[in-house]
Automatic annotation (TrEMBL):
Residue ranges of every copy of the HTH tetR-type domain listed in the record: 17-77
Protein name: AcrR family transcriptional regulator
Keyword DNA-binding annotated: yes
PROSITE patterns cross-referenced by the UniProt entry: HTH_TETR_1, HTH_TETR_2
InterPro entries for this protein: DesT_TetR_C, DNA-bd_HTH_TetR-type_CS, Homeodomain-like_sf, HTH-type_TetR-like_transc_reg, HTH_TetR, Tet_transcr_reg_TetR-rel_C_sf
Region (Disordered): 1-20
Length: 215
């Protein structure tokens, strides 16, 4: 029997764009669970209920699909972080609060994507995708810190180093929070800002180690 001109039980065929988006979604899940090396075109195709040639047709293979997934995650995270830093007139502490919250929000809402970024491009690898993204963020933070250091007559050349320290703290804390999810996102962000802000607020202009701690 036919209803509305279509056979009952027959699903609507996906367009090329819809199929591509479906494969990206499925591939994202598989890469998050398995990692790039352990993920396979066979599993991706099976979960998407398509044949392997369909995956190759759209992406040329596992590498092409992975590149699309990573590129989207990087764009999503970087856009969120840049948005948090866009107000040049905001107080530096407020910018730090917004950035920490934006980072944790991305993790909370894009768990699979963050797992892909940190699993296959760990922060410790300077050539990794995630590390490259953090370098971009650190450069933006450096600009803010340099202006504040200059305002208070501190050496502006230290801005680069302090920016790396701050961004590294947020990145590693985010990886830890991904697994525990405790305490809440707001509490973690507040604690990170508390440590970094009051540490920066009491900076010595020419810090040095105590004699007993020198190696």
């Amino acid at each position: 029997m036919v209803e509305n001109g279509a056979p009952r039980g027959r699903s609507t065929r996906m367009t090329g764009r819809e199929r591509r988006e479906q494969l990206v979604t499925v591939g994202r899940q598989v890469f998050a669970e398995r990692g790039f090396d352990m993920a396979s075109v066979e599993e991706i195709a099976s979960r998407a209920t398509v044949s392997k040639p369909i995956v190759y047709e759209h992406f040329g293979g596992k590498e092409g699909l992975y590149a699309v997934v990573v590129d989207r995650e990087v764009s999503t995270l970087l856009a969120a972080l840049e948005h948090s830093l866009r107000d040049q007139r905001a107080h530096p502490r407020l910018l730090m609060e917004r950035t920490a919250t934006a980072f944790l929000t991305y993790i909370d809402e894009n768990e699979d994507g963050f797992r892909i970024l940190v699993r296959d491009s760990p922060v410790s690898q300077t050539g990794g995708t995630f590390s490259s993204l953090l370098t971009d963020v650190a450069q933006r933070v450096e600009e803010i810190l340099a202006a504040q250091l200059k305002l208070h007559s501190y050496p502006t050349q230290d801005a680069t180093m302090y920016a790396q320290m701050l961004v590294g703290m947020v990145a590693y804390t985010g990886q830890w929070w991904l697994e525990s999810r405790r305490p809440s996102k707001g509490i973690v962000a507040a604690r990170m800002v508390n440590l970094s802000w009051y540490g920066l607020g009491a900076l010595q202009k020419t810090p040095s180690l105590h004699a007993g701690s020198r190696g």
